[in-house]
Inverse folding.
């Protein structure tokens, strides 16, 4: 019999509410700062309630605000970040899905060795191999291009490992039934494995989209053309403006706008994301 303990429930709810407030408070203050003129933020105490400059500040950063910090409009940078994040997420899933399929369902020499070589690359993040990767991209003439931003980041040992582990749980009877029905490898992949992997793909898409959206170091190295700046690079360029005072109201508006796409992706795919992480019965 489960005892009803209202005091424990109230304490648990109180702790959760405190955690939500602590997490949400910086976001709220950033939003409030984005609705006030800059002199209010620099000369007075930090306001706690929104001001009357919301439409003006957000309209400025979307159309021309970054020009005040030597950059480009935030709308352009958000589009660059969106292209980069979508391409990285889709590319990682596509390549990892095919590589895991080949490792699990095809018999070829050194199959296990190749998998462990892929898995070992988890210990070599972009920051470790950034110099040789940059040299290759420069030699291929891919600097200041979407290809240079995206292609070096689309390989994923993590996604390959997760897809491999999932494929190992698929019953062999499905493969045998597909062979009896005359299905080839690609039809088995398209008609059976792909639908079964839907929740795993959704979870990986959310993770990889946020990974691509938040990239800073790699775009900073391969991009000097301001028209290819990403939103994270734009926020950094707004803060470092030399001797002049940063336009904090525009910076906070840019920060709020930069949060929206990842938040929307998580909200829209929340159910599939959770299923892909916790589902045990495939």
């Amino acid at each position: 019999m489960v005892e009803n303990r209202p005091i424990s429930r109230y304490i648990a709810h109180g702790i959760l509410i405190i955690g939500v407030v602590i997490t949400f408070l910086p976001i709220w203050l950033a939003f409030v700062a984005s609705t006030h003129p800059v002199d209010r933020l620099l000369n007075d105490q930090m306001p706690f309630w929104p001001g009357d400059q919301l439409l003006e500040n957000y309209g400025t950063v979307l159309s021309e605000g970054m020009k005040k910090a030597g950059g480009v409009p935030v709308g352009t940078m958000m589009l660059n970040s969106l292209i980069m994040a979508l391409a990285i997420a889709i590319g990682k899933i596509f390549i990892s899905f095919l590589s895991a399929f080949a490792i699990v369902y095809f018999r070829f020499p050194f199959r296990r060795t190749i998998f462990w070589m892929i898995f070992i690359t988890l210990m070599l993040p972009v920051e470790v191999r950034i110099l040789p990767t940059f040299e290759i991209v420069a030699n291929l003439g891919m600097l200041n291009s979407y290809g240079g931003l995206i292609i070096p980041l689309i390989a994923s040992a993590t996604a390959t490992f997760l897809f491999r582990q999932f494929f190992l749980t698929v019953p062999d009877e499905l493969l045998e039934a597909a062979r009896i029905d005359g299905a080839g490898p690609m039809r088995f992949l398209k008609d059976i494995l792909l639908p079964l992997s839907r929740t795993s793909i959704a979870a990986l898409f959310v993770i990889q989209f946020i990974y691509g959206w938040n990239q800073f170091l790699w775009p900073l190295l391969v991009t000097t053309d301001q028209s290819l700046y990403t939103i994270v690079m734009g926020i950094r360029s707004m803060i470092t403006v030399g001797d002049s005072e940063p336009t904090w109201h525009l910076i906070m508006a840019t920060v709020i706008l930069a949060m929206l796409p990842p938040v929307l992706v998580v909200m829209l795919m929340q159910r599939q994301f959770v299923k892909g992480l916790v589902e045990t019965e495939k």
Observations:
- The two ends are 32 Å apart (CA to CA).
- The chain has 15 helices and no strands.
- Residues 142 and 148 are 5 Å apart (CA to CA).
- The mean pLDDT is 83.
